Inverse folding.
């Protein structure tokens, strides 16, 4: 007896369709701005900004730290007190979760990934 294959969506349910990425990016920025965070795109970031970008294979990626340091060590508060970065990332993650945005904090990468919104 042949069992029919289940209907499988082309996009995993926890990832937005490519057409929805701009809406998700705008939603994440709005949620964070409403919570009092100053958000920017990485290329426009200043120290203290929450940087928000979209990656097609991951979703919306949120970071906080010294912009433009690349592989160089962070300077200022982030470099001297790495626990500050962790606390900010945990606070940002909590704000996103409370707003219905599935977010996961990746401490190794120092990034928060949002894969959709309810």
């Amino acid at each position: 007896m042949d069992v029919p294959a289940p209907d499988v969506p082309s996009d995993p349910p926890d990832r937005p369709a490519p057409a929805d990425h701009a809406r998700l990016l705008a939603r994440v920025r709005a949620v964070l701005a409403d919570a009092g965070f100053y958000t920017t795109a990485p290329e426009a970031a200043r120290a203290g900004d929450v940087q928000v970008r979209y990656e097609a294979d991951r979703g919306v990626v949120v970071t906080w730290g010294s912009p433009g340091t690349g592989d160089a060590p962070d300077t200022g508060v982030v470099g001297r007190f790495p626990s500050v970065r962790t606390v900010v990332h945990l606070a940002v993650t909590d704000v996103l979760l409370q707003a219905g945005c599935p977010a996961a904090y990746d401490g190794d990468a120092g990034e928060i990934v949002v894969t959709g919104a309810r």
